[in-house]
Design brief:
Blueprint lengths: L2 H5 L10 H28 L4 H8 L1 H19 L4 H15 L8 H28 L8 H22 L8 H16 L6 H4 L6 H8 L2 H30 L4 H21 L1 H6 L2 H21 L4 H9 L1 H19 L5 H27 L6 H21 L4
Helix pairs in contact: 2-3, 2-7, 2-8, 4-6, 4-17, 5-6, 5-8, 6-17, 7-12, 11-17, 11-18, 12-15, 12-16, 14-15, 14-16, 14-18, 17-18
């Protein structure tokens, strides 16, 4: 065991509410598993043109730029921060409920904007709550986060089969029960000892964290990785279809990626203890560069696409598990809420918007090949940042 592991191996954690935190992850990502793959189909069923659908779906990323930062700031200034999580879950559900009725396009856009704001606002706060239960044991994060992946894939696959037999206008009714479950679960959880046992941070504490060069290098690195994933998140299925893959083969490749992600999250804790975050993030960036290069150059070979999906273990699961461990080190105790908010707004939100713009601009060149080539370059740029600026331990 190295010095890092020795520093971060305190006594066993008291009263970790594993089942409740895992259930919240499952329910929240079940909502995302219904929304991300199928809501464009719902909007098409409502008579929207493709251009309007693309604009409406982009509201998700637009609200992610500012919602997490605002919500994290409000929650941390409150004496009872968990109440903001509970309020956010209820407002998310209330904003989505009008979609049960046939709204005009402006009404749909308004409802989705408010829904996306609160859905994106509560996500980093819940991540901070999870990490507050894991002080000095952030390697156990993956065993909780994996239930989000399970919830996403279960609903994405299950609703895909269900919507073969139901009209798309039933989608909001299928998603609302999961939102209600998120609301209920929000009242069963609270911050853990890493929050309650830590002093309230001052502005000077936050400024000190943000003055560190390696902290901003870390956020830039996460932004580059978010941008690199944009062609995959946005148009991977279309890319495969263009190269002759059947719907069953496309579904199988998606399932392979999520399956290896789940397996990695379940088993990665010992690896996180043995290897520093910088090394694992570099491995993830290298795997990402190879993965996107394979997709750009050899998309017609099924076995290459399968191997590329198996690289999801390093390029996504291991990379982000290590990143969460490093984030917990940069923003300890009650600073975690601010760290998660900045990460969600800057890296995920702003990075998602930039990635979507880059993907849309490059997609016509080589029918997607140029976009995946750009992802390779972004991973290599991230590796350069990690080598030069991230701490070695």
């Amino acid at each position: 065991m190295n010095s890092e592991a020795a520093r971060e191996a305190p006594a066993p954690l008291p009263d970790l509410p594993h089942a409740r935190l895992a259930a919240y992850y499952f329910a929240y990502f079940a909502v995302i598993g219904g929304y991300t793959p199928y809501f464009s189909v719902f909007l098409h069923d409502r008579g929207m043109a493709p251009s309007a659908i693309g604009l409406t779906m982009s509201l998700w990323y637009a609200t992610r730029v500012f919602a997490p930062g605002i919500w994290s700031w409000l929650a941390e200034r409150s004496l009872h921060g968990v109440r903001w999580l509970r309020a956010g879950t209820m407002l998310m559900t209330l904003a989505f409920a009008p979609l049960l009725w046939r709204l005009p396009p402006a009404g749909i856009a308004t409802s989705l904007t408010v829904f996306a704001f609160f859905a994106n606002a509560i996500a980093p706060q819940f991540e901070a709550i999870v990490l507050s239960h894991l002080p000095g044991r952030s390697e156990r994060y993956g065993t909780l986060r994996v239930w989000g992946s399970i919830g996403f894939i279960a609903i994405a696959l299950g609703y895909g089969l269900l919507l073969d037999h139901l009209d798309a206008h039933w989608l909001p009714a299928l998603m609302l029960p999961w939102m209600l479950l998120v609301c209920v679960l929000g009242f069963t959880i609270d911050y853990g000892p890493g929050h309650h046992g830590a002093p309230r941070p001052s502005r000077d504490d936050l400024r000190a964290a943000l003055r560190r060069r390696e902290v901003w290098a870390f956020f830039v690195l996460l932004l580059l990785m978010q941008m690199a994933f944009s062609p995959y998140h946005m148009l991977y299925s279309l890319y495969l279809r263009h190269h002759g893959y059947t719907t069953g083969a496309i579904g199988g490749l998606w399932a392979a990626g999520v399956g290896i992600e789940i397996a990695t999250f379940f088993t990665i804790a010992p690896v996180l203890l043995r290897h520093p975050p910088r090394a694992l993030m570099l491995a993830g960036l290298g795997a990402g560069a190879l993965r996107w290069l394979a997709m750009a150059t050899l998309p017609e070979h099924g076995w290459v696409m399968l191997m590329a999906q198996l690289m999801h273990a390093l390029s996504f699961a291991a990379f982000y598990a290590a990143a969460t461990r490093l984030l917990a080190r940069f923003f300890p105790g009650r600073l975690m809420s601010y760290g998660q908010g900045i990460n969600s707004s800057f890296a995920s939100g702003f990075g998602g918007v930039l990635g979507a713009l880059l993907t849309s601009s490059l997609w016509p060149f080589g029918d997607g090949r140029a976009a995946f080539t750009a992802s390779t370059v972004l991973c290599l740029a991230g590796a350069w940042v990690a080598l030069r600026l991230l701490p070695r331990e």
